[in-house]
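> forwarded from #structure-qc
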């Protein structure tokens, strides 16, 4: 816990990385100058996400690769194992006049402040690799390509195929991999490992139990009153119209049914370790109907 807190503090303060770096290699002034010239000729898009200092210290620069980031000249580019940006590919390129470590990055679609959905963005991260640094760069390439075992955490295991719970499946096209991937290599849909599917299913079970217990209690005490208003038109015990009573009763029953669906779907995920795309979409649409009923109640008032 202390190590994790220190790591997060170091990243927040943008301090130099610690001794847990995966790979590190120096870049002399001549190599950096040639790399800058090559980048200017190359241009973009996709553009290089690497910070580009114009002046190089006499001792040169140092590239430092961490498990979830890359450092150059005291600045860090975040490369999370899951999330944005996603590393689609990492490869060593024997370029002229400077060899480089090239990474293709993808930022998933996102919603801006006005509610519009922005399309995915593609960029690249390119760093120079001098001749003596190829061994170190190979280590970084293998890590960012997810070819080497990762560090297990709550969401994923080592990712080397030794644990069947690490198997991630695309619910859209069926692509499967044990690697640390958050998006499908074929269609771009989000991947979910068996481990995470079971844990997410357990969370759905807890939410479903809370909703069914809460709504069951509410329906037990409020349901007879609303039912009396709906059937007999008796508004003496309900300060509302018959239509409002019908809508409120339907809303409470809908929330109860939504809790039951969460229980069922969560239990299925825990049992199978899989995600059913159509089932998840159906539950989401049902939740949208419940929200529409809630807004209708507000409007009827």
């Amino acid at each position: 816990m202390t190590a994790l807190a220190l790591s997060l503090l170091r990243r927040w303060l943008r301090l130099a990385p610690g001794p847990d770096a995966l790979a590190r290699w120096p870049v002399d002034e001549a190599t950096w100058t040639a790399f800058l010239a090559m980048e200017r000729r190359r241009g973009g898009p996709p553009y290089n996400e690497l910070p580009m200092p114009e002046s190089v210290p006499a001792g040169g620069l140092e590239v430092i690769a961490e498990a979830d980031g890359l450092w150059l000249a005291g600045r860090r580019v975040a490369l999370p194992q899951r999330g944005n940006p996603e590393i689609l590919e990492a490869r060593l390129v024997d370029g002229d006049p400077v060899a480089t470590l090239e990474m293709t990055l993808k930022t998933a679609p996102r919603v801006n402040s006005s509610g519009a959905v922005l399309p995915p963005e593609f960029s690249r991260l390119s760093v120079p690799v001098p001749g003596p640094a190829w061994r170190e760069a190979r280590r970084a390439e293998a890590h960012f390509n997810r070819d080497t075992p990762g560090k297990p955490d709550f969401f994923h295991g080592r990712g080397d195929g030794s644990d069947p719970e690490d198997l991630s499946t695309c619910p859209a096209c069926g692509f499967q991999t044990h690697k640390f991937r958050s998006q499908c290599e074929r269609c771009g849909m989000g991947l979910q490992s068996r481990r995470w599917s079971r844990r997410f299913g357990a969370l759905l079970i807890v939410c479903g139990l809370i909703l069914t217990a809460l709504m069951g209690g509410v329906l037990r005490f409020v349901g007879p009153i609303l039912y009396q208003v709906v059937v007999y038109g008796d508004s003496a015990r309900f300060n509302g119209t018959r239509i409002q009573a019908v809508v409120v009763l339907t809303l409470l029953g809908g929330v109860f049914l939504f809790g039951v669906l969460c229980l069922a779907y969560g239990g299925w995920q825990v049992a199978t370790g899989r995600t059913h795309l159509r089932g998840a979409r159906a539950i989401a649409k049902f939740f949208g109907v419940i929200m529409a009923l809630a807004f209708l109640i507000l409007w009827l008032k």
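QC bot note: The chain has two domains: 2-148, 196-300. Residues 6-15 have pLDDT under 50 and may be disordered.
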